[in-house]
Amino acid sequence: MSPTGLGLNLNAIFTDGYGGAVTYSNPTSSNPEVATVTIVSGILSVVKVSSGSTTVTFDVADSHGVKMTITYYLRG
């Protein structure tokens, strides 16, 4: 199976209400044999490696120290 991918612009989703920078870190896939994940310049890239399911997580932080972990469940 050839890898296929999805790119999601996180900067269009997450904003700092005070105009500061939003940072993203720690992108992980619970099953990298199903999908791999990276974040570069605010673009979340998920590449399907094989059929199955995985959980993708990453951290978001704003310039005032507000942090959260985002989790997506993917199946395909």
**Cα separation of the termini:** 13 Å
Main sheet record: 3 strands, antiparallel
Count the E strands. Answer: 6
**SS element count, helices:** 0
Structural class: mainly beta
Order of helices and strands: EEEEEE
Shape, per Cα inertia axes: elongated
Q: Overall mean pLDDT score?
A: 91
- Report the C-alpha radius of gyration, rounded: 13 Å
Percentage beta strand: over 45%
Low-pLDDT residue spans: none
Strand order of the largest sheet: 1-4-3
What fraction, in percent, of the residue positions are helical? under 10%
Short structural description:
With 76 residues, this protein is mainly beta.
Task: Summarize the helices and strands and which ones pair or pack.
Layout: E1 4-9, E2 22-29, E3 35-40, E4 43-48, E5 53-62, E6 67-75
Antiparallel strand pairs: 1-4, 2-5, 3-4, 5-6
Description:
- The chain is 0% helix and 59% strand.
- The chain contains no helices and 6 strands.
- The protein has strands at 4-9, 22-29, 35-40, 43-48, 53-62, 67-75.
- The strands form 2 sheets. It has a 3-stranded antiparallel sheet, with no helix packed on it.
- Strand 3 and strand 4 form a beta hairpin.
- The two termini are 13 Å apart.
Which terms would index this structure?
76 residues; three-stranded antiparallel β-sheet
